[in-house]
Amino acid sequence: MDAAVLLDWYDDHARDLPWRVPPGSVGRADPYHVWLSEVMLQQTTVAAVKSYFAAFTTRWPKVEALAAAEDADVMAAWAGLGYYARARNLLKCAREVAARGAFPTTEGELLTLPGIGPYTAAAIAAIAFDRPATVLDGNVERVMARVHAVEAPLPGSKETLRALAAALTPEVRPGDYAQAVMDLGATICTPRKPACALCPWRDGCAGRLAGIAETLPRKTPKKPKPTRHGEVYIARRPDGAILIETRPPKGLLGGMLALPTSDWSDAPAPAPPVEADWQRIGEVRHTFTHFHLILDVLLAETPATPTRGRWVETPDPADLPTLFAKALRLTL
Known about the structure:
The chain has 332 residues and is an alpha+beta fold.
């Protein structure tokens, strides 16, 4: 595979994304924009991230502004993106960068920042600072597995794919190359029905020549996720206010605004936040990384003083994590 051929393709077909600069630009992408977009894009689609990225960079245009933000404001702005540990680490990292005065420029230094792992460190080093770093996300893994016909399944083959990707990373325009190979996977070498006829690397693709490209990369079957249960409580005052609480800083949805719930387990213990006549109005289902969750939604009209949480007038479901937004919408 020839990096120059891929770069020529990228010059003509690069995706127009708000955190990028055009290919071949003299100036580099803002490391704050690269970092923010890469954190948001973890486990999330480009289409979903664009509006969040715009909202964050409008409200907090520099990393110093984000570092000075209130935790609750950032967590609320993150609501709906999921994987909320990312938002907590986002604030920790922003404050560390602000304290240092700037983003580090090398992979090794970037890895010392909170919440930045090997992929994000390589992406920032390559895209923002034009370092020849090896970026390995799902798109790049797929491209490498196909062009080299790597039939060993993931995740066991990850380091093999990393080595193959590193061997192709050029010294010239490494930032554009990193984005080019990601774009190739996202737009041409797609998981299903790859557009091989349009691929700049089609002639040398071992997977295509062997007729197995679409079957790659192979993956070790995952164990089925367990299902947990619980109750979510919607307490409503006569004036329409809803009882809301802030979840503990650690754990799932940590630090987020939420409706009160019981524990989530095989046999959850009821834990209503106020004495009331609770009525079941339905259920909501949600899938986390490691388990499925089914919550019974209980509603009560009550003027009583709760044991936890606070009353909020007409809360907007969009300000809550998706799980709780689903529950609240049952009452609207």
